[in-house]
Structures are given as C-alpha cells and as structure tokens.
Design goal:
546 residues, alpha/beta, Rossmann fold, GMP Synthetase, Chain A, domain 3, 4-stranded parallel sheet
Length: 546
C-alpha cells in the first residue's frame, strides 16, 4: 500500500475529524475528512474530463489552503505527476517552468492568477478551482504506483541559473515520511493525534510538502495560514505546539522582542541584560552563584513573559531552508523555546539531517549544528569539505536534463550538495556556506560569507546581511533593518575583535529596503540572490570602496 493509499484511508477513517484547518485572522475554519474526500473525488472527475492520465504533469499554482491539499491528493490519486509552483512568483518565470514540464493542466484558484499566466501563455491549459471542484465525483482507490514512479516535480529556486525540475519518486517519499513522523514524535514527546501544528510556508516547497504529507500520514490536524501579512494574529489564533520556520522569521521575532524591550521600565531592561549575560556564561560553563540567581529571576520575570508572548502553548520550533545563526538558536533556548534544525535539499526529498533531542541528554542538540543524518541516509565530506550524500531519499534526476543530472553526482554515485560543512565527534553537522559562495578579497584569502552574515544578523535591529568584497581590499556588508548607528558600530567592532584581519567587516551600508521575493533579491525559498543584491546596491557598494 502506498503513502497515497494511507492518505485516502485516513480521510475515510476520520470523516468528522478536522484534518486541515484554515486560519483566517481570529477564526478557524476546519475541514473534516469527509469534506476533504468529497473535494478530492470531484477534482479527480474534473482531471479525467480534461484527459489527465497517469504520468501526465499537472501544475498546481495556488495559495495554501484546503483546496490546495485536495488538488494535490486528487492528482496523486489519478497517478499523474504534481508540479507545484509558487503563486507569488513572477508569471513570466512560472510560464518558463510550465513550458519545461509540458503540463496537461494548470490548476489556478481563479481569474486573477489565470489571466496573469495567460498574458504570457495564451494557450495555457488553465483549470480554475471552480471547474476543478465541479467534476463528477470519482470514488475509487488511488492508482497503483511503483517505487520508481515519479510523483512530483519541484522546480529549484534558480538562485544560480535556470530553474530545474527535481523529480521525486514514490520510493523517495515512502522512505521520508516514516522518518519525519518518528522525528516529530521525538521532538514533541508524544504520539500523533492532537498536536497543534501551524504552517505558513508555501506547500509548493519540498519541506512544506513533507510536513503536510506527514500530518496526513499521522492523521494529525494541520492549521494552515491564509494571509502572510496577518501572520502574528494567525499565530495567536492557532496557539500551536510547534511550526516549521525559516531563519529570517526567527531573526525577526528576536529583533522585534529586543526592540520592544526599549519601551519597558529600566528594571526590566536591566534584568533582561543581566539574565542574558548570565545565560551566556552558563553556556560557557562559567556561571557563578550570582549568575544562577540572576538567571532564575530573569526566567520568572522576563524570559517567561517573552515565551508567553511568542506562543503560550509553544513547545518547540523547527527550522530549515538555510543555516540558522547559533546566536538566534541560543536566544530561543534562553527564553525556553528549543529550536530544532533540519537540513536538506529539494533533491534529497527535503531532508538529510535532523536534530535528535533526547530527554536524558541536554547536549543532544547543539546550537549552530543541524543534527546527524536521518535513518538510512549516508553522508561524507569531500576533501574540500563539500557535504555529499546518498540513500533512498535522493532524487531520480532533473526533468529532461540528463547532463545536469549527471553533474549533480560524483563518479561513484554520491549527490553533491554544493554546501561546505564540518562534523563533530557525535556526527552532528554544521553548514558553513555554499562551495561557490567563497569570497576571495585581494589579500588572496578564502572567506565563507555565511558565518559572518549570521553574526551580523545577531546584532539588534539587523534583519538581513550580505557580505561583499570579492576581489576587493577588504570586506563590507549590506544590512537591512532599523539600526542605531552608534550601536551598530560598537557591535561590528566587537564582532571584528576575534577575527583575523582578512575576515573583518570594514564598512557597511544600512538600508530600510529588505531583500524580498517581490524585488527579486530572494529566491522563492527565501535564499538570497547574491549577484542580484550586489547589482541592486551597486552604487552604495562602490561608495564603500571609494
């Protein structure tokens, strides 16, 4: 029985249970198993009417919600290949990917998005939700699939070139879902059932899709954000036990809290600073009796209040997509909310390593590291430090791109991650940066910018950071956020103190313009487009070196 069969069986076994819940501001709109199953059945009928057959590609282009999940399950049930795309991406880029995969149908929520696609591709086989969910119901078992059958094609973000379609198979997903289900039970300390799980990241991304599918596998309700501009209120409504994050949100939460403390009474500000210093000494094993007393008081008066403000029922956070700064992970640990890291690629069915918390070992999770390899997956480091992996989670190849597929693997069959890493004695990995992102200033030294950027982002008020300086006499940085100039100078001086001369930040430019997907400075998966940022801020960069 395939994972798709399990999804269908869970819908039938829980007709009255809300398996998906849309969050609309302060309101929750539950969709029980029977309602989702009815939507799936009608969508399958509409797909058949459109002539969709096993192996056909069907693009799913819509915001998160119950109908997104029902569309996904319907396409899977018909044996077709789901090609999810990001609804907020530039329509011209979306059409380029559609031409690449040659879809039988393009599912869109309505006229607005459909018209945007049709402007670039008048013959696009558009299938709006209105027609999709008006089909004649098909109440049949999902079509059978072999392990090597492709179930989804997910296009990479294209930060370094033309997006490529990553083909994931039924076998890839069948291996991954038990791993993630077991990991969630380990992280939360309880079996599936009534975990309050919230999700805001687009389902078209590999990690988000795996979380959705894992919840369906566990028959555990999933609360889904419907408005990213109203995320704070939605979180207050959902009151989750945990949710999946990207580092930029966690950095923003931390910076927001610390900025808000400026308006608190002086004793509160003092206790926060004293408690933070005591926590840092405790981490280093240097805490004295006064530190322990200060930390106890700060936990009761300040840190606990911060935790309640962020999430009164929040037990942990899960973070992936990019390396999380050690300082940010420590900060959440300080206020009583552990953050567990996940590392992986679209090409590895989203995951390679995961933190493994252990109740009897407080050192099982190390801030700054992304944990050990998941079960059944092997990792090695090449001579130049590249993380390479192989296992049943590794993709079948890039759609229609044999040369790119071959280039993604070593001669002996290991997948090249493109990430530089190291590993500690316990097998926990740390991602240092991209292999191709090394900066070589005119001194000739190799500098990985990511660790420096993470340290800059730990400065109060700094939201994003990009270090530049390739071929230049020294390193500089582009910083976004609302930062006090004097405090920033002091923080950068402190950062430079323990760095060799060639890794020190000599200049910086602060801007209120954030790196976003909409202005083309972030990829759809929230990764920075380094070349685009350097081009966008070319004048300020030149000014820093003038």
């Amino acid at each position: 029985m395939s994972f798709v069969d399990t999804f269908y069986d869970n819908l039938a076994a829980h007709p009255d249970r809300a398996l998906l819940i849309e969050v609309h501001g302060e309101a929750l709109e539950p969709a029980p198993g029977s309602e989702i199953a009815a939507l799936v059945a009608r969508a399958r009928g509409a797909l058949r009417t459109r002539g969709v057959k096993p192996g056909d590609r069907v693009v799913l282009l819509a915001p998160n919600g119950v109908r997104w999940a029902a569309s996904d399950l319907a396409i899977l049930g018909e044996g077709a290949i789901v090609v999810p795309m990001y609804a907020r991406q530039d329509p011209a880029e979306l059409v380029e990917m559609m031409h690449d995969c040659d879809p039988r149908a393009v599912i869109v929520p309505g006229a607005d998005l459909g018209d945007a696609i049709a402007a670039h591709w008048p013959e696009a086989p558009l299938l709006p939700f209105e027609a999709l969910f008006a089909g004649e119901p098909v109440d049949e078992r999902p079509r059978e699939r072999a392990d090597d059958d492709v179930v989804t094609i997910i296009y990479t973000s294209g930060s370094t070139g033309v997006p490529k379609g990553v083909m994931l198979t039924a076998g890839n997903v069948a291996h991954m879902l038990p791993c993630t289900a077991t990991a969630l039970e380990r992280m939360t300390g309880r079996p599936a059932g009534n975990d309050r799980v919230f999700h805001y990241l687009p389902f078209c991304f590999a990690g988000s899709r795996i979380l959705l599918w894992t919840c369906l596998l566990r028959a555990n309700p999933l609360m889904v954000s419907t408005d990213l501009d109203d995320l704070a209120r939605e979180l207050g409504t959902a009151r989750p036990n945990y949710f999946l994050n990207v580092p930029v949100l966690l950095d923003r939460i931390r910076n927001g809290v610390e900025a808000g403390l400026a308006d608190k009474p002086a004793p509160v500000r003092w206790l926060y600073r004293r408690g933070k210093a005591a926590f840092e000494r405790a981490v280093q094993g240097r805490a004295g009796r006064r530190d322990r007393l200060a930390l106890t008081l700060a936990n009761r008066v300040v840190f606990g209040a911060i935790q309640q403000r962020i999430g009164p029922e929040l037990e942990c956070l899960i973070c992936g997509s990019a390396p999380l700064a050690e300082s940010t992970q420590r900060w959440f640990e300080m206020i009583g909310i552990p953050v567990y890291q996940v590392y992986g690629l679209t090409e590895t069915t989203a995951i390679v390593t995961m933190d493994r918390p252990a109740p009897d070992d407080p050192h099982a999770v190390v801030p700054g590291r992304v944990g050990p390899a998941i079960d059944g997956v092997a990792i090695r480091l090449s001579e130049d430090g590249e993380l390479q992996t192989r296992g049943p989670n590794v993709f079948a190849g890039y759609w229609g791109r044999e040369e790119a597929t071959a280039a993604a693997f070593t001669e002996d069959g290991w997948l090249r991650s493109g990430d530089r890493a190291d590993v500690d004695a316990a097998g926990r990995y740390r991602i240092i940066g991209r292999m191709k992102n090394l900066l070589v200033p005119s001194s000739g030294h190799n500098v990985a910018p990511k660790p420096l950027e993470q340290r800059l982002q730990s400065v109060s008020g700094v939201e994003q950071a990009l270090v530049v300086g390739h071929g230049r006499p020294f390193l500089s940085a582009i910083l976004t956020g609302d930062v006090d100039a004097a405090a920033l100078c002091e923080a950068v001086d402190a950062l430079n103190d323990d760095l060799p001369h060639y890794r020190r930040i000599r200049r910086f430019h602060v801007t209120s313009e954030r790196f976003t997907i909409e202005n083309g400075l972030l990829t759809a998966t929230q990764k920075v487009r380094r070349d685009a940022i350097e081009q966008h801020f070319a004048d300020p960069i030149e000014e820093m070196y003038r």
